[in-house]
Amino acid sequence: MRSILLLALLPVCLVAAPALGIVKPVIAQSDGGDAVPAGFTHTAGETMFFSCNIAGFTKSADEQIHMTYTVQAFDPKGVPVAEVYKNELQEEVGPQDKDWQPKIETEIVMPDILLAGTYKIVIKAEDLLAKTSADLTVPFQVAGLNVAPSATLVVSNFRWYHHEDDQRAMSQPIYHAGDDMYIKFDITGFKYGEHNKVDTSYVVSLVLENGKTIWASDPAAEQSDSFYPKPYITGEGGINLQKDFKPGTYNMAITAKDAMGKQNFEKKFQFIVQ
């Protein structure tokens, strides 16, 4: 009878350990800065300052804690955009530190070229004493171009400007003799080599309606590798339409090459000189 009574009381005598958790996540624009407001939009190339705390950890009999944690950012498809940050924490936490929580702090440097979308920071922590783990996903928005993916090499999003520093593309490519012309376009569908290496080049040509080329730029190349695979490459070029430039319909031709994937692509984009 006494044994049965002890068994019945046993659950009351046990105190459940708090669950391990990741709390107080903060994305800031400076080290130790305030959290960015809800709906904030980040940009490619930005350095984000991230911090959070770990709650519910377990202490050993000699007041020690022992845990590991990782922090990594991912794009909308789940591809890591930066290398993982990981660390191990062993520290004495006495009674005077009853409200103290381990703090994770790291910087996340975003790649220079990103597509627009919802990205995420994934934090994982493991309490090696209690053999418990926790994770947290913190979403954030990134502004950027919406460049459609392609299985093969292609030039898209052709934009016309007057000057290199113009912020808004022209609605219609109509120029006059003596105008400056500036163009931008995106290249995608190229293949990757080791370490996400890309090897692309392009030439911009001014072509008459009868197909005769009257001007061509020097070849421009993008040869680089990176941790994060570049989703696209932006090409550009400019020319001055001389004052004696005759009115008519012309074409700006883009010839692109992908050495890594052994691909070629050419397309003409029409404009008018009045």
Mind explaining what this structure looks like?
The longest helix has 12 residues, at 2-13. Strands 10, 12, 13, 14, 16 and 17 form a six-stranded mixed beta sheet that branches. A five-stranded mixed beta sheet has the order 2-8-7-4-5, with no helix packed on it. Strands 1-3-6 form a three-stranded antiparallel beta sheet, with no helix packed on it. By secondary structure, it is mainly beta. It folds into two domains: 14-143, Immunoglobulin-like; 154-273, Immunoglobulin-like (Sandwich), CATH 2.60.40. The termini are far apart. The protein has one helix at 2-13; strands spanning 21-28, 41-43, 47-55, 64-74, 85-92, 103-109, 117-127, 132-143, 154-161, 174-175, 180-188, 198-208, 213-216, 220-224, 233-240, 248-258, 263-273. 4% of the residues lie in helices and 50% in strands.
| Anisotropy-based shape | elongated
- How many structural domains does the protein architecture include? 2
Radius of gyration: 29 Å
In CATH, the architecture of the largest domain is Sandwich
CATH class of the largest domain: Mainly Beta
The strand count comes to 17
Biggest beta sheet summary:
6 strands, mixed
Number of helices: 1
Order of helices and strands: HEEEEEEEEEEEEEEEEE
